[in-house]
Request: fold
Amino acid sequence: MKPAVCLLALALGTGLAATAPTAALAQVSVGVQIGAPAWGPPVPQGTQYYYIPEIDGYYDIYNQIYIVFDGQQWVQQPYLDGYDPYYFHPYPVSYVGAQPWLYINT
Reply:
């Protein structure tokens, strides 16, 4: 009788080991473009500005602000009255430095 009990215990142990959940290893990668507006095209890492021809101005991606010329000077504005940015056709500016608008003749 003892060999039958040992054999039964061995069979149960093997069955439980075979059906036990195994450790799952998974990797999750999430790419998030922080700060880029939903209305703008994707930009390479390190790009700070969009040029927006509809307003003849810029959008600072890092600071989330528009830079436009008011006729006398360049001013920063958090939003533009009368404009829907989803209708803009922005171009990423491949310029390294601050204030690319200062190099444009107005």
In short: Residues 49-103 form one domain. The mean pLDDT is 80. The beta strands are 49-52, 57-60, 65-69, 74-77, 91-93.
